[in-house]
Amino acid sequence: MPLVTRRQLLHGGLGTAALGLLSACATPGTHSVNTAPTIASTTGEKITIEYWSWLKDLQVVADIWNAANPNVQVKTVWIPSGNQGGYPKLYSALAAGGGPDLAQVEFGVIPSFMMVNGLVDISRYGAAEFAGRYDKNLWNQVSFAGGVYGIPQDSGPMATYYQSELFAKVGATAPATWDEWADVAAELRKAKTYIDCFPLSDAAVFTAFAAQAGASWFRADEDGWVINMSDEATLEVARFFDKAIDKDLVQTGFTPFSPGWFAAAGKGEIATLTSASWADALIAGISGGAGKWQVADMPRWSSGGYGSSYQGGSTVGVMANSKHPREALEFAAWLTSTQEGIDAEIEHCGIGWSPAPEIIGTPRTQPSDFFSGQNYNQDIFAPAALEQNTQWSWWPSQQQSFNILSDGFRQKASGTTLVDAVVAAEEKIMTVFKNSGLSIRKESA
After folding, report:
1. Domain tally for the chain?
2. What's the mean pLDDT in 135-151?
3. Lower CB density within 10 Å: C or N end of the chain?
4. Chain-centre distance of CA 37, in angstroms?
């Protein structure tokens, strides 16, 4: 992801509605953004940092830190994930002048929290000293306007999980390209099996495929945001899945990890899932699936693009009303970039892919019995994490954009194509930006 400058973000990239971002004149969260006193633990004063997250059993991990840092104690509070309720709760707390010191915030939602002055620029508290520990692409995704607005916590590099016995029945191996994927899908349909499902209700999946193909939907220019959702890379993906759906090569009746999906996968009616590294724990819940599944590289697009893509990923953000931003930063860095912290997160929380390239986590260095004895984390996902679209940028109102795109995809059964839905969504998203006071224009041909 290209770095966005302060001028782009304030004077153009986020428009006049966000001019208060760094000047403490927007609400919520105006009382302490970048101005809260750093109460150092060296004073001898015992402090408590509160962290809101949707990770279960995170307090067990925090207690490892607590045992070694008696003057800086961390209390965790569970909240529902993202738009399931966690973000509204955070916004409400910020508006009331409260909230936690730290919160789990997805990469794609950082610009939206910045719009309401909700995150501290932790570059003011020494974030640069930790930058070298993290994947450069992920660090760029938390870097805006000359500042740093989160510490990468996890990501979701993608690969293909597949049932090798089902492939063997049709004489196929894991497809190296999407064209091969379509060929294998046609053979599997003859055996009354779908190669995969395409979730019309979850635009995040299509977005990940488009990013892999080389799309870059948004960028910040001197005069505002520039949008290009109808670029050739995106339309290639839309045309491909239009054709796959029309030929009945993919299941659209349910989504991954739904009850219908688990039943179909267990009965051999779904042969693969192209998804993120964190999907392994969910796939392991398929009844009778042990030893039947393997992991292969994500298929590549024939026009080029990248070897993988991201699906999901979150950060630890220092929230606007924190009175202990330096100590909060130190805990966040320990949690996400040390062997001790990462191992504990994997063991107790099932965290996604480590943002620290040198530390994938001890539990992920061993072969897996469920996945046919593969050491797939080291052999597949570690390289996939480095095969990402570095030109991809997240934007304000990301979730609303996804909802617009999903609403269009749902019309596929009524004759609307995915291509049509993408083009229409682009226009609607531009309207959302303009109604929010943001400057946006279509990329010139």
Report:
1. 2
2. 94
3. C
4. 32
The candidate with the shortest Cα–Cα distance to 60, out of 424, 265, 344, is 344
What separation in angstroms does the CA of 248 have from each of 169, 241, 243, 335?
A: 20, 10, 9, 45
Pairwise CA distance, residues 394 & 217, whole Å? 9
- Domain range holding 54? 6-155+312-376
Helix-helix angle 178-190:232-246, to 10 degrees: 10
Confidence of residue 18 (pLDDT cuts 50, 70, 90): very low
Higher pLDDT pick, 22 / 259: 259
Residue 78 CA to its chain's centroid (Å): 19
The pLDDT, as a whole number, for residue 43 is 57
pLDDT digits (tens, 9 = 90+) for 22-63: 333 233 333 334 455 554 444 578 999 999 999 999 999 999
Single-letter amino acid code for the residue at 85: G
Q: Examine the pLDDT at 269 and tell me if it is beyond 90.
A: yes
Which of 376, 404, 423 is the last residue in one of the domains? 376
User: Among positive and negative, which fits the CA dihedral 282, 286, 288, 289?
Assistant: negative
* Residue at 82: amino acid letter: G
Q: What is the pLDDT of residues 335-360, one digit of tens each?
A: 999 999 999 999 999 999 999 999 99
Q: Are 342 and 413 found together in one domain?
A: no
Asked if 210 and 135 sit in the same domain, the reply is no
Partnered with residue 162 across adjacent β-strands are: 272, 294
- In this structure, is residue 338 part of a structural domain? yes
To the nearest 10 degrees (0 to 180), the angle between helices 339-349 and 325-337 is 80
Strand-strand pairing, 250-251 and 196-197: parallel
The letter for the amino acid at 79 is I
CATH (domain of 359): 3.40.190.10
Round to whole Å and give the CA distance between 353 and 230. Answer: 30
Confidence category of residue 80, pLDDT binned at 50, 70, 90: very high
Tokens of 77: 């509070």
pLDDT tens digits, residue range 293-345? 999 999 999 889 999 999 999 999 999 999 999 999 999 999 999 999 999 99
Residue 21 has pLDDT above 70, yes or no: no
Query: Pairing mode, if any, of strands 272-276 and 151-163?
Result: antiparallel
Measured between alpha carbons, how far is 40 from 49 in angstroms, rounded to an integer?
12
DSSP output for 317-372: EEBTT-S-HHHHHHHHHHHHHSHHHHHHHHHHH---B-S-TT---GGGSS-BTTTT
Residue 381 belongs to some domain of the structure:
no
Can you give the pLDDT at residue 298?
98
